[in-house]
Fold this sequence. Notes:
By secondary structure, this protein is of the alpha/beta class. It has one domain (about 5-425): Alkaline Phosphatase, subunit A, CATH 3.40.720. Helix content is about 30%, strand content about 15%. The protein has helices at about 15-20, 95-100, 115-125, 140-145, 195-215, 220-240, 255-260, 265-275, 295-320, 385-395; strands spanning about 50-55, 80, 90, 105-110, 155-160, 175-180, 280-285, 325-330, 335, 350, 355-360, 365-370, 370, 380, 405, 410-415. The chain has an 8-stranded mixed beta sheet, with helices on both faces. Strands 2-3 form a two-stranded antiparallel ribbon. A two-stranded antiparallel ribbon has the order 9-10. Helix 8 packs parallel to helix 9 (about 295-320).
Amino acid sequence: MNQCGCHDYVALTRRRFLGVLGGAGAASFLGLWDPRLLFARPGRNATADSVILLWMAGGQSHLDTWDPKPGTPTGGPFGAIDTTAKDIQICELFPRIAESFDELSVIRSLTSREANHERATYQMHTGYAPLGSFQHSTLGSVISKMKGRKVPDLPPYITVGGQAWPAGYLGSPFAPFRVADPDEPTRNLDYHQSVDDENFRERLRLLRKFDRRFRARHRKSDVLTAYAEHYKAAHQLMHSDSARAFDLSREPKDVREKYGASFFGQGCLLARRLVQAGVRFVEVTNAGWDTHADNFDEIRGRAPALDRAVAALVQDLRENELLHRTVVLLCTEFGRSPKINKNEGRDHWSRVFSALIAGGGIVGGRAVGASTPGGQEVAQDPVSVGQLHATLCRCLDIDYSDTNYAPDGRPIRIVQDHDASAIEALF
């Protein structure tokens, strides 16, 4: 056992898993058992096999974080500090992250046309602009489908805080499992206080009884199949030892303190536990970056928890020999305006913004692209949302030109932009 209790998370073999379920009745839940649904083969020759997305909801200011412009009319009051990477400076509010730049790289030339929160968030998660008549799948769902499950009884895609993304055209088997609070991650996996194990089994038997005739009439229904798979996966997780991956109390006190007591800090610790246990894609949301007013006070207040959590996550992944197979991406829907408004805030700005990336084959200590001296535009090497997604796919050995199909037969490329390619400078 290492200091983080890794022995809790031994991956199950197919034989061991089937042996555990043998005779338990779970295998026939709703009459729809097919091991192939749970043991989809992962991609071959993968560099990375998991992703942790740290989502800065609201539009994080690039000028006050990863692309500072001290001493300029647009720069604001914060200074810049050196990092452990040559010639790369970041905002002085992030000294711990600055010390981690042997592993981290920064992208300073992200750009898009979407400056509305909902549309930009949708595009950054799916790679597509929103359509009123169609729901695209997020990159988390796509990666879950393309790579398959690593552990049969853990969801491949988990979100911590933030919104509950639908699975989109890929269907409910690829929808994320949402954890509302990292300190109460299994609240929806435990029985209600009025229900014991026997009561629960009785309810399942009653459900199967009511459902039998309906299933007989609709055996070829994809909707019914997806419904059954969802119930089966939930039932399986409730009674699985793998659910211990959600339990932060199993972590040593000093490890929990290293991440900080904030929601985001404990969410990052949970993300490390989940990828260590075999989850493909974990998204942790850090909200509150929509700073139209009091931008500098807001960022000054939010920076310490972010700085502590991200540095701890990168260090922890490295020490547990997980960083080489886990891509960590910190990003947001757009940046903030170089112009400081009358409320000491910054407004929406999608022309140029920044992201951090580490692990999974990414070379640390590099800066990709650059903004103009005032941070208004891309000055060098623009990076599109499609290129960012293509870069993640390359880390995971996924062909980003591959196509999935919606239920109506509509072809959907993983990366919409046919001209997009991975960011070579990061490799």
